[in-house]
Amino acid sequence: MVTIALDRVSVRLGRRAVVEQVSATLTPGSLVGIIGPNGAGKSTLVRAMLGLLPTTAGTIAIDGDPVARMPRAAIARRIAYLPQGQALHWPLEVRRVVALGRLPHMAPLSGLAPADAAAIDRAIARADIAHLAGRTATELSGGERARVLLARALAVEAPALVADEPLAALDPGHQIDVMRLLADEARGGALVVAVLHDLTMAARYCDRLLLMDGGRLMADGAPMEVLSADRLRAVYGIRAMVTESEAGPMIVPLGRAE
């Protein structure tokens, strides 16, 4: 199990402050959504969590170990990462792409062990891409590629998963499938962190939401506490209907706030 603790974290990119004074403790067994308008600092925050960007103030720790002092391979074994907008440039078979998720567990120049092959099979099944396994990854549609990359992250079988905009390029049916999968991972004891733009999906499937705006954490709590109509007006600049349906919460933007 993995716990990520952020204590007054700030990140600058060049001269611009992108994340400012963010504190939160993310614990196992929960699906945590990070939401906010474009440019709010969401992706920068998750990259800092993974040690991919240095902090300019504050600390980030994984199970008490400072991220800044951890080897990259150690972080990769504890937290699987699905970046946003990642392209596939090499004409690899889909199964070989998924197999890349096992690299954090492998010694240099070593081949796949039976345990690696089993993990790859499980990831392919969980991402529902068995029918694509023999295809060439560069020949797939955008939605198919997104699911292959999710399978690659799942193949790590790390106790935590960070997914940056995992619903991009997916049709509504596959968006539901991915959110259910992420929720199932959390119910199985993993810490799952997802950057999301679809507020209804975030409200329906996440256990907790972090709402960011201008690099700052504006709210942290249960989805329907965070997603109030007044807060959506203040942060997103929209009028929205926030309601409960038989299927779960619904957040319906009605127009720009006047």
UniProtKB/TrEMBL annotation:
Q: Name one GO molecular function term.
A: ATP binding
A Pfam family matched in the record = ABC_tran
The record's listing under CDD domains reads:
ABC_Iron-Siderophores_B12_Hemin (cd03214)
| Keywords carried by this UniProt record | ATP-binding, Nucleotide-binding, Translocase, Transport
Lineage, top-rank taxon, reads: Bacteria
ABC transporter domain: from which residue to which, for each copy? 4-239
Supply the SMART domains for this chain: AAA (SM00382)
Q: Which PANTHER family does the entry mention?
A: HEMIN IMPORT ATP-BINDING PROTEIN HMUV
State what this protein does. Part of the ABC transporter complex HmuTUV involved in hemin import. Responsible for energy coupling to the transport system.
Annotated protein name in UniProt: ABC transporter ATP-binding protein
Q: Which organism is it from?
A: Sphingomonas naphthae
